[in-house]
TrEMBL record:
<dbReference type="InterPro" id="IPR011032">
    <property type="entry name" value="GroES-like_sf"/>
</dbReference>
<protein>
    <submittedName>
        <fullName>NADP-dependent oxidoreductase</fullName>
    </submittedName>
</protein>
<dbReference type="Pfam" id="PF08240">
    <property type="entry name" value="ADH_N"/>
</dbReference>
<dbReference type="InterPro" id="IPR013154">
    <property type="entry name" value="ADH-like_N"/>
</dbReference>
<dbReference type="Pfam" id="PF13602">
    <property type="entry name" value="ADH_zinc_N_2"/>
</dbReference>
<dbReference type="GO" id="GO:0016491">
    <property type="term" value="F:oxidoreductase activity"/>
</dbReference>
<dbReference type="InterPro" id="IPR052733">
    <property type="entry name" value="Chloroplast_QOR"/>
</dbReference>
<dbReference type="InterPro" id="IPR020843">
    <property type="entry name" value="ER"/>
</dbReference>
<feature type="domain" description="Enoyl reductase (ER)">
    <location>
        <begin position="10"/>
        <end position="308"/>
    </location>
</feature>
<dbReference type="InterPro" id="IPR036291">
    <property type="entry name" value="NAD(P)-bd_dom_sf"/>
</dbReference>
Length: 312
């Protein structure tokens, strides 16, 4: 099968098309014929070698950890899906990722794609959607009517987090370029702050939760907007517990856990029209397409998710 791999760490020019063996599903697994995948920051962070101590993979590495496609083979002991069903999944983080024509995954991690959702839309959801869900609810404990600040609301994770928080009846503030404010208010944001011209920490206060998708100085300033006993949840870098104590708040770091049940919850939201996938950019499944997609992701200026179309 065709796959796009890296055989050493480094720049996007290391993304190379190769023929590799088609995987065979084992006990409890399914083989998925891929229609689409999407780009996430973990992709280029692994490519550059930033995560090699945390994820010590052997080469070659197939990047990508979002999948949408059709069940091709049902492995021994697997019974959740039938051949031909449309599914999407955030598979386990192994060196056999989703920049490929076929993948295998534990069937327990997958969910059915709603009929009203395309493969490209479905591919945009698993990693970003589960990240938003686990940050807001599992780690953040966001409750009905809570006040939440979601950083980088126009990004892949942020745009989904706003919609999920809206369904909780939360009061939502977000940071984003002014050109995206109209879209974000349609998604459910109550307050949109242009980070280029306004310091969010000077205009917000008394928040229950901050969802940090940026890290660095953004994280450091975010403590100031939280109420006593509030919570800061980051998906970028572990918060400083000593600083959190100084502000009288709690903190947590989220490293995504693949979860088929939660993915099914997200599928239900999409089926009901409560969660809209935001596909901002689409690229072809070629070396050039993947390199351009990585460059866009690294720029931090992508709107919504970056999707790779593998099969029409």
């Amino acid at each position: 099968m065709k796959a796009i791999v890296i055989e050493q760490y480094g720049g996007k020019e290391n993304l190379r098309e190769r023929e590799v063996p088609t995987p065979i599903p084992k006990e409890g697994q399914i083989l998925i014929e891929m229609n689409a995948t999407s780009i996430n920051p973990i992709d280029w962070k692994v490519r550059e070698g930033y995560l090699k101590d945390m994820l010590p993979f052997d080469f070659p590495i197939i990047l990508g950890w979002d999948a949408a496609g059709t069940v091709k083979v049902v492995g021994p002991g697997a019974s959740k899906f039938a051949v031909g069903e449309r599914v999407f999944v955030r598979p386990e983080t192994t060196r056999f990722g989703c920049y490929a024509e076929y993948i295998v995954t534990e069937e327990s991690l997958a969910a059915r794609i709603p009929e009203n959702i395309s493969f490209e839309e479905a591919a945009s959801i698993p990693l970003a959607g589960l990240t938003a869900w686990q940050a807001l609810f599992d780690a953040g404990g966001l409750e009905d009517g809570g006040k939440v600040l979601i950083h980088a609301g126009s990004g892949g994770v942020g745009s989904l987090a706003i919609q999920l928080a809206r369904e909780k009846g939360a009061h939502i503030a977000t940071t984003a370029s002014s050109k995206n404010h109209s879209m974000l208010k349609e998604l459910g944001a109550d307050i949109c702050i242009d980070y280029k011209n306004t310091k969010f920490e000077e205009v917000l206060e008394g928040y229950d939760l901050v969802f940090d998708t940026m890290g660095g100085s953004i994280q450091s300033e975010s403590y100031k907007v939280l109420k006593n006993g509030g919570r800061l949840v980051s998906i970028v870098e572990p918060p400083n517990e000593n600083v959190a104590d100084q502000f009288g708040v709690n903190s947590a770091f989220v490293w995504l856990k693949p979860d088929g049940k939660e993915l099914g919850e997200l599928a239900g939201h999409m089926k009901e029209g409560k969660l809209k996938p935001i596909v901002g950019h689409t690229f072809d499944f070629t070396e050039a397409g993947l390199r351009e997609a990585h460059a866009l992701s690294e720029s931090h200026h992508a709107k919504g998710k970056i999707v790779i179309k593998i099969k029409e």
